[in-house]
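Deliverable D5.2: sample structural annotation.
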Amino acid sequence: MEYKVLANGVKLPMVGFGVFQVDEQVCEQAVLDALETGYRHIDTAATYLNEAAVGRAIASSGIKREDLFITTKLWVQDHGYENTKRAFAKSLQKLGLEYLDLYLIHKPYGDYYGAWRALEDLYKEGLIRAIGVTSFSSERLQDLFLVCARIMVMYEGTNVADRRVSDTSLSDIVNLIVGEKFTARSAAAH
């Protein structure tokens, strides 16, 4: 299996099984089939409304937790510091897990500064192995870094349709820096 090493050293399997628009009724069996086929990275989100089915599949798979890589995402209605912490606990409970491998802010709307601060704290507490964002423009990502980030984004994913050529250099910066307070000066040095 091929991996991408994230900025903090966590190994992300390059092939994963996503459950976007997979109905709760068929999701559990679909994830079990994917795990039996050899998938070890499962990608879900609170807004997909199937985290509980994913959790049941994980529990009944017989695969050791440390051999799996589980990603889920925070949805916009749960942004803000306290809301994010509650949403994280709810996702963890639905998934039946003690920690997440990757937790992402799904879109840059509402109080995503507060959401990012909550992710940083959950990461420091050891409840998340890596934190990041998805579907952020380079401008919103830079804004996040400059305004509130104490820990660098470890993963930045963008839908191909949302990606612009100018976004590439920011992804390079994200992959170079981890764990240090982001400043314009540290970004310019890289």
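Annotation notes: The CA atoms of residues 63 and 172 lie 34 Å apart. The chain has a mean pLDDT of 83.
The annotation will be released with the project's public dataset once the embargo ends.
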